[in-house]
Amino acid sequence: MARRPEPVKKSIPDILADLRAGYREADIVGSAAALKYLERTQEGQHSLPNAVKCFLFDLLADTRAKLGDWQGCDDAVKGALANLAAAETDLGAELKRSLPTMAIFERGIQARSELGDFHGALELCDEATRRGLGAHFEAKRDSLDWAR
After folding, report:
1. What CA–CA distance (Å, rounded) separates 113 from 13?
2. pTM beyond 0.85, yes or no
């Protein structure tokens, strides 16, 4: 009797690369197709590493914002933030490179403002500023300072 081949285990960076490649391919068709791809990935990948989930939720936040689904965008931002520590641990260098262009802060502030959660938007501004993401978020924070 022949031995079964061992399943191929991908590294976390390889899983992230697959996620991004699939998203880019689906996004060519449009935001609705990209959302469908991300939702299927989320549902079908129960063992997706938490570090990759951070990036998945980031893509979900951006896609839902493009579709005007502000509550879905905010939920995705919460998911990304919940997995941010895992991304820092497992994909630290990639996260550091990607964070300035990720949607979790920009789209999160937009979503929370659209939903009337100005305190939540201000918290995201403060977090982005603490992470050194620049004067852009300081200006947004200053414009929301009245919500304190």
Report:
1. 33
2. yes
- Rounded Cα gap, residues 106 and 77, in angstroms: 10
Q: What is the pLDDT of residues 59-83, one digit of tens each?
A: 999 999 999 999 999 999 999 999 9
Query: Which amino acid, residue 37?
Result: Y
Task: Tell me which DSSP letter residue 101 carries.
Answer: G
Task: Please give the distance of CA 18 from its chain centroid, rounded to a whole number.
Answer: 15
Instruction: Write phi, then psi, for 10 (nearest 5 degrees).
Output: -85, 155
CA distance 2 to 44: 30
Contacts of 6 (CB under 8 A, 6+ apart): none
8 A C-beta contact, residue 38 and residue 70:
no
User: 2 in the Ramachandran plot: left (φ > 0), alpha (ψ -120 to 50) or beta?
Assistant: beta
Q: Residue 8 is which amino acid?
A: V
Listed in sequence order, the residues at least 6 apart from 77 whose beta carbon sits closer than 8 Å to its beta carbon are 57, 61, 104, 107, 108, 111, 124
- Per DSSP, 91 falls in state S
Q: Compute how many other C-beta atoms are within 10 angstroms of the C-beta atom of residue 97.
A: 10
